[in-house]
Design goal:
With 85 residues, this protein is of the alpha+beta class. 26% of the residues lie in helices and 42% in strands. The protein has one domain. The structure holds zinc ion.
Length: 85
């Protein structure tokens, strides 16, 4: 009996999560300021890749590699902290 209730809760919980994921695009734009040239760079972030992401991307303006630390906020907005490599 208890098991059934747990299962129902899990199912509705899963459905909620799925609906939420469908409403959000997989990629969202985030901004960071390049340390080398001071330009504001807009990059698409794949929010389905995880809440915390670290990767290196070359600045499209000055071509210097930047270490980007991405945090996805609770409202789904990605925030980037950048660091010159
Ligand atoms: Zn730059």
């Amino acid at each position: 009996m208890k098991h059934n209730i747990d299962e129902k809760w899990q199912l509705s919980h899963m459905r909620l999560r799925t609906n939420r994921a469908e409403m959000q695009p997989a990629e969202m734009d985030a901004h960071y300021i390049c340390d080398s040239c001071g330009e504001e760079i807009v990059v698409p972030v794949d929010v389905t890749e995880g809440l915390h992401q670290d990767y290196v991307e070359d600045c499209p303006v000055c071509c210097n590699p930047m270490v980007l630390h991405v945090d996805i906020a609770e409202d789904g907005q990605p925030l980037i902290k950048s660091k010159h490599e």
